[in-house]
């Protein structure tokens, strides 16, 4: 992550890490997580950092796995899993509600 002969610009580096991470590059995902965890180039966002590290770790990045182990306690992992589950539940509930409203608005079915 060192640029020879250029001035350090964390915001610019963060921009390029985001682009590469979006293309599923595990090294960029690991680096993006590092920048976000430490607030380099953007405000600290530990939740997003963890998501990028998890993505990189799932692609085999040993450094991302190490970061997750080093920075997260068991409690942090539990809280994040609960938050993710709650968000998924809210999404499901919203979709179910929309289907119910659509069914009500479409009127009764003729079951002959």
Give the topology, please.
Layout: H1 10-22, H2 26-38, H3 46-58, H4 62-71, H5 74-105
Features:
5 helices; mainly alpha; 112 residues; Serine Threonine Protein Phosphatase 5, Tetratricopeptide repeat
Describe the structure concisely for a colleague.
This protein is mostly helical.
In total, the number of domains comes to 2
Mean pLDDT: 87
Basic shape: elongated
Structural Rg = 21 Å
**Largest sheet features:** none
Low-confidence stretches: none
What is the CATH class designation of the largest domain?
Mainly Alpha
- Kindly state the number of beta strands: 0
- Please give the count of helices: 5
CATH architecture of the largest domain: Alpha Horseshoe
CATH topology of the largest domain: Serine Threonine Protein Phosphatase 5, Tetratricopeptide repeat
Could you explain how this protein is built, in words?
The chain has about 110 residues and is mainly alpha-helical. It has two domains: about 1-70, Serine Threonine Protein Phosphatase 5, Tetratricopeptide repeat, CATH 1.25.40.10; about 75-110. The chain is about 70% helix and about 0% strand. Helix 1 crosses helix 2 (about 25-40), helix 2 (about 25-40) runs antiparallel to helix 3 and helix 3 packs antiparallel against helix 4 (about 60-70). The protein is elongated and about 75 Å long. The N and C termini lie far apart (about 70 Å). About 15% of the residues are buried. The mean pLDDT is about 85.
């Amino acid at each position: 992550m060192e640029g020879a002969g250029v001035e350090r610009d964390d915001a610019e580096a963060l921009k390029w890490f985001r682009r590469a991470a979006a293309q599923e590059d595990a090294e960029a995902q690991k680096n993006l997580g590092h920048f976000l965890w430490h607030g380099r180039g953007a405000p600290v966002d530990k939740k997003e950092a963890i998501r990028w590290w998890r993505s990189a770790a799932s692609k085999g990045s040993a450094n991302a796995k190490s970061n997750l182990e080093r920075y997260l306690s068991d409690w942090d992992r539990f809280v994040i899993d609960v938050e993710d589950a709650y968000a998924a539940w809210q999404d499901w509930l919203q979709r179910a509600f929309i289907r119910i409203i659509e069914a009500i608005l479409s009127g009764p079915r003729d079951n002959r």
